[in-house]
Amino acid sequence: MTTTDTAEPTLTIDELAARAGVTVRTVRFYGTRGLLPPPVLGPRRVGHYGREHLARLALIEELQHQGMTLAAIERYLKRLPDDLSPHDLALHRAVVASWAPEAVERVTREELGRRAGRPLTDEEVDRLGAMDVVVPDGDAYRVDVGLLRLGVELLDVPFSPETVLAARTALLEHSRAAARDLSRLLRDAVAEREAPEVRSLSAHMHPLVVQALLTTFQRSLREELREWLDKEAGE
């Protein structure tokens, strides 16, 4: 595992398992199957894990929730680039969660922290609420499960809540426009087919389309940032 400023290996295997809500045995099993990168070895060869491992465990959990077998999960993870950051992995998890109908659950404050992968302060819960990820509901919270991990990752981004909300609005606007155009193209392509075949094709194409959109967006954003940074460096 390559360490970065955003993914320093600071967790022991017991701490990682507790944060992810799995057993130590599960972490070790995933490691032997290549689903998790090896830990960084510290003094006395004690393994240390970072946010990348936590994000990968969350992605694996979501893939299992969607009904994928272990072999299918292995194939999915092998197709991902090796240098994905925890934020990138959180985006992939959000995409995987979008394959299923919207999943909103009512959870306690304690369960909210477990689902988030870390304890949350009152201020952080308020910020998640501003992102429409968490909604207070009496003595509990209604949580958009598919967006929770992504929202938690955004808590560590040094932007104001106003900037995050503006970015969310822009993403929703453009993603809905892309969804309308793609839906129109797909409807035209299957207009002459029988309804059962159309439903089967739709179920098959949905994850492929959203993964293609994510990959295209990541590349476009990387190019835009590179051009901006090159321009700043030249001035």
TrEMBL record:
InterPro entries linked: DNA-bd_dom_put_sf (IPR009061), MerR-type_HTH_dom (IPR000551), MerR_fam (IPR047057)
TM stretches of this protein: none
Pfam families in the cross-refs: MerR_1
Domain HTH merR-type: 10-79
Keywords of the record: DNA-binding
PANTHER family associated with the record: HTH MERR-TYPE DOMAIN-CONTAINING PROTEIN, REDOX-CYCLING DRUG-SENSING TRANSCRIPTIONAL ACTIVATOR SOXR
Protein name: MerR family transcriptional regulator
Organism from which the protein derives: Streptomyces violaceolatus
